[in-house]
Give the backbone structure.
Amino acid sequence: MTRIWAAGLFVALLVAVVWSFVATYNTELWLPQQASSFAGEVDALFSSILLALTVAFVLVMAFLIVAVWRGAARTERARTSHGDARLELLWTLVPAVVLIWIAVAQGPTWRAMKGDARMLDRPPLARVEAAQFDWRFRYPGADGAYDTADDLVCVHELVVPAGEPVVLAMRTRDVIHSFFVPDFRLKQDILPGRDTKLWFQAPASGQHELVCAELCGWGHYKMAGSVRVVGREEYSAHLAELALRLTHNGTEERP
Ligand SMILES: [Cu+2]
């Protein structure tokens, strides 16, 4: 009777774990929406790694269930063994092959996201300035240069045009922060004293959550912002509005 319970517990755990993934796979409980050009690729990598892990998990659990079932029926002491070279070779080689496969399979996606010089050599659309505990975004203004009088600065919300590659220059004014937009599958650390760049392309309009993914101090939890993707016209209108807001002295008529 005990062995039915013991083996049954592991069967239930195996079924519950696998079922929880299958049942939620295409729901909001699973991954957030895919809102960048490489989000689908990242998810495909994630799913293939998860599949490999699921196979390993099911095999290990099946072995455990059989061991519990058969072991519980015996009364003699368990036999122990040491130094089985074939077994050790097997559990070294199989994970090694899996790890090498992961390293090779993710290469093209990683290069497209982080190492694409054609993208990263473009002039940045804006500069992200992270600090304890807010996000500031600096657009270079008409002269195309940063830290000049016509810079347009806004807080918390970054507005970018849809359907175009967007390059961001990033720096921190104090400690390490991390620029994380889950919907874009994009996360990049920003290190003190170093200018960092990233790029993405959001195909459609929408509002996306931006969070800091590096524990940066007591107010880390409130270091939230958003990335708003809009059409070209609305983007230009936003910059014009920003310029007006920053230069308006309160006396003239606003259009
Ligand atoms: Cu932070």
About this structure: The beta strands are 126-131, 134-139, 152-155, 157-161, 165-172, 177-181, 186-190, 196-201, 206-212, 224-230.
